[in-house]
């Protein structure tokens, strides 16, 4: 069973899926008053503004952090129509937006917000990035 933890400030709910986390540290480098892995709970939304929390969650390269606005009926209403692809120097391929991923066995999964795809070839979670590019000193 996959662990999912939810944190809310009344306006927005942040969902954390630890199994997806690649420990990029983008969350706490960008908004340390909200995301602090040294504290429990490590997510304290009351220490930030909703807009900056949403912006920081969108920067999560693995989509271990996602969000939905509490006023909306469901998460899917938060997805955008546009898809943007960004190549990170010496890192993964980031895809922002909604997409359906079909794996080598034909299994499909729906991804939204940010998905990180491996470019180095060393990930143990292909096609997704697991941070292996750091230990392999991937250049590209």
From TrEMBL:
GO terms for molecular function: 2 iron, 2 sulfur cluster binding; metal ion binding. It comes from the Bacteria. Keywords: 2Fe-2S, Iron, Iron-sulfur, Metal-binding. The keyword Nucleus does not apply. Residues 90-139 form the Iron-binding zinc finger CDGSH type domain. The keyword Iron applies. One of its GO terms (cellular component) is cytoplasm. Pfam families: Fer4_19, zf-CDGSH. This is Putative Fe-S cluster protein YjdI. It comes from Arcicella aurantiaca.
């Amino acid at each position: 069973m996959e662990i999912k933890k939810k944190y809310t400030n009344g306006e927005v709910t942040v969902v954390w899926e630890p199994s997806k986390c690649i420990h990029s540290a983008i969350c706490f480098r960008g908004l340390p008053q909200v995301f602090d892995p040294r504290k429990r709970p490590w997510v304290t939304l009351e220490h930030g503004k909703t807009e900056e929390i949403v912006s920081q969650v969108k920067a999560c390269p693995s989509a271990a952090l996602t969000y939905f606005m509490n006023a909306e009926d469901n998460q899917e209403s938060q997805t955008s129509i546009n898809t943007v692809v960004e190549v990170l120097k010496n890192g993964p391929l980031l895809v922002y937006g909604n997409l359906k991923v079909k794996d080598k066995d034909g299994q499909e999964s729906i991804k939204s917000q940010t998905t990180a795809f491996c470019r180095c070839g060393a990930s143990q979670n292909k096609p997704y990035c697991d941070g292996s590019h750091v230990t392999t000193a991937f250049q590209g």
